[in-house]
Every structure is written in C-alpha cells, then in structure tokens.
Specification:
The protein has ten helices and ten strands. It is of the alpha/beta class. The chain has an eight-stranded mixed beta sheet, with helices on both faces.
C-alpha cells in the first residue's frame, strides 16, 4: 500500500516539477521576445540556432540530472522504510513436500528466535538453506528436495524478521551471519561430527558466502544470485546509470546505520579470501539487462576472482536472478549435489 501511494506522489511531483520548469521557460521566452537579434546572413543564422539548440540541450540535461538526483534520494528513503520493516508470514508444511521435516526453533546470540525445518542426514552432512529477501523457508523447498534425495540433511529457516522468526527489523543480511552461527551450533548439538554446508539464493546467497568467510565450520558454500553487501562491493561504473546506483548505495548504507543504529559490516569483497581453503560456488544469471549488464558480469565472475582458486563459477546464460532451477532443473540438481559430494568426500 505504501508503494502505491508513494508512486502516486512521485508522479504528481514529476508533473509539478516539469510544469514549473515549462512555466519558467515560457516566461523567459515571453520576456525576451523581440529582444533577440537574429543575424541576417545564412551562416550567422545557422550558428545562432545551433548555439540556442545546444543551450537548450544542456539545459534539458541539467534538469534531467536534478530529477534523477531527487528521485534517487526519495527512492532511497522509501527503500529504508520498506526494506527494514519485518516481513512476517505463516509457514505451513506443504502436503507434497516429499520428505519428512521437524519444526524446530533455535536462538541467535543477540536474542533472535529462528523458526525452521530440520531433516537429519543419511550421509553425515547437513546443508543450511537460506531464502531471498522478504521470503521464508518455503522458497528453498526445491533445493531441499534435491539434497534430501541425495542423502543430505537440511536445515531451512526463516531469516530474522521474516516468516515466523522474530526480529524488530530486517537489515538486508547485515546481521544474519549471527543466525548462521546459531544454525551451526544447532546442527552440532544434534551431531557434533556432522559436516556442514550452506546454500542460498539472492540475499540468502550473500549471507551464506559472508558466513563461510567468518565461520570455518561451513565447509562448502553455494551462492546463487550473490550481490553486494556494502556499496564498496559494487563494480566500477561503466555508464552514468551505474554511477548513480553506486552513489545511491553509499547513501543507502549510511542511512541503514542511522535508521537501525548498527554498524555497517566489513564489505564482502574484503573477506572473500577468508573462505579458502573451503570450496565456494558462485552461480549467476547471464541474461543481459539494459544498461546494467548481466548478474554474472556485475558480481559472479568478479567475486570468484577475488575469492581465489577455491572458488568456482557457473553462469546460466538464460537465467536472470535465482531462476537457474527453473531454466535447467536437472543440470542444476546434478551440479549442486556433485559440488557438495566433492566437498565432503561423498562417493556414489
């Protein structure tokens, strides 16, 4: 609902903004009418009109920049409001889930209670599964099915302030590594010798990879659709639009710290090498997006290069973001299981 009213306000502002500009231009033209000396020669007239056209073009470009700046600021404010608000939802075990799960809860060290499903392993290895921003554990049912069929245990839980987990705010994954730490402790409370992997989509992927750099207990990490954790993680701008997005992200980071009263985490690109020697897989969509380029160009390949020789990449050409399982379900399942099999020394 907030987005709806915000969009209406945004449209009204743009209409009023351009109406004001057009009114000012009309007043200026009316005031200067008859005062402009137009050269009598053909060459003089051509030069005169070219100059006026270039002035108009420069004026229009300046107005566009001002509008882009204003919209980026108000969109940042909207993002701060909507993206930090909790996203609770009821989670029900589907009838067609295909495997047995136990409803579990465990607590993070800062008092957050995480709600999830747990399935014990048949092969001595459990994979933590993390969903995208604003979702809940049901978003990871498909990879869970593939892993359980292969003998893996799974622990899939609602991220803090999502689904049925507690939390007063969402922080775009900034504090979620604490919950991965709690998940590790939960798994080891069930079996101290259990091998642990982690797999995530979108923001879940960022949390998984970030946690793998912090906690050596995560012996293998699979991130599908990784993106920046901090503005410093973004690539160098290749066009004005990307430059605006990067500048906006620096503002967004600063506003997060003010709104939530927390410190910003270390940029992902600074801690990626800490994952070694454990393997990490970066999966990204190869589909080109106007002006921005593909996800794999922005993040996947660059993150893997920074992480080092222990990192692998898989670019799915026809995918955009986290839709690899829909584009290539059989290949995705095989690659994912094979990745964890190799990491844990499981033979089939």
């Amino acid at each position: 609902m907030l987005h709806h009213y915000w969009l209406i306000g945004e449209i009204l502002f743009i209409i009023l903004f351009f109406s004001f500009i057009l009114f000012r231009v009309w007043r200026k033209i009316k005031t200067q009418a008859g005062k402009i000396d137009i050269p009598e020669t053909l060459n003089g007239r051509i030069i005169h009109f070219i100059k006026r056209f270039l002035r108009l073009l420069w004026f229009g470009f300046g107005i566009l920049l001002i509008l882009v700046f204003i919209i980026s600021i108000e969109r940042t404010i909207l993002a701060i409001i909507t993206e930090t608000t909790p996203a609770p939802s009821e989670v029900i075990i589907p009838d067609n889930l295909g495997f047995e799960v136990e409803d579990v809860t465990f607590e993070s060290e800062d008092g957050i209670t995480l709600a999830g499903w747990h399935t014990p392993s048949q092969n001595g290895a459990t994979v933590i599964l993390l969903h995208g921003y604003g979702g809940n554990r049901t978003g990871m049912i498909w990879p869970a099915q593939q892993l359980v069929d292969a003998g893996y245990g799974v622990l899939m839980y609602d991220e803090r302030a999502n689904g049925e987990s507690t939390g007063e705010y969402r922080s775009y994954g900034w504090e979620d590594h604490l919950d991965v730490k709690a998940a590790i402790q939960f798994i080891h409370s069930q079996n101290p010798n259990e091998h642990i992997g982690a797999m995530g989509c979108s923001t879940g992927a960022s949390i998984v990879v970030y946690s793998a750099a912090l906690y050596p207990e995560v012996e293998a990490a699979w991130g599908d659709g990784n993106s920046s954790v901090r503005a410093q993680d973004l690539p160098a701008p290749k066009n004005p639009l990307v430059a605006v997005i990067i500048a906006n992200n620096y503002l967004l980071d600063w506003m997060y710290t003010i709104k939530l009263g927390i410190e910003a985490p270390t940029p992902l690109t600074e801690i990626l090498p800490n994952i070694a020697p454990h393997p990490v897989m970066f999966v990204g969509g190869g589909m080109e997006r106007p002006l921005l380029g593909s996800e794999s160009e922005l993040y996947t390949l660059r993150f893997a290069e920074i992480a080092g020789p222990n990192a692998q990449t898989w670019v799915i050409d026809e995918a955009t973001h986290c839709d690899g399982p829909f584009q290539r379900p059989e290949e995705y399942s095989q690659k994912m299981v094979a990745f964890f099999d190799e990491a844990f020394g499981i033979e089939r």
